[in-house]
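Page 47, continued from p. 46.
Same chain as before, 187 aa.
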Amino acid sequence: MKWETWLSIDWQQVIGISLSAVGFYIGLMLFTRLMGLRSFSKLSSHDFAMTVGIGSILASTVLSDKPSLLQGLCAVAVLFLIQGVVSLIRRKVKPLKALIDNQAIILMAHGEYFSDNLKEANLSRSDVQEVLRKNGIKAKTEVFAVIMETTGDMSVIKHNDVAPDWSLFDDIRDSELLIDANKNGKQ
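Result:
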């Protein structure tokens, strides 16, 4: 390996990288203003793909002369357009929403693990226990529910004195398990 080339940069490259970075930044801000705050959210798998795609295009556009700045901005514009169309389809065509989005799944409720759901999510009890510890849970009995969200994040809902609003759980697969576990716990 030639250390000189690995650690070298000339002024033309510095100027090119700087101009590309500034141009790309301005373009991203404009696209984000046009498409809204959802542009970089991580609410679903297609949002994640958008963020990864933009990062990849940004890196290749800023650090090399091919693709050009305009080619990179064009590619990002297409990604924003695709995300806008997919978001519109998700809102307007309910049958396609299920094809586009993952569905949240209950991993644990009222201190009981749902083994089939853990298996389907490719998780172990140990994975859930780690999330419980990170959320300050000292006993399984403190847990109302652990839900794997559509983004892959896990939500931990603790028991408290507030009665559950079941409509908050109606978009979760197997939500009846949560309701059934709650009814069985009160008997």
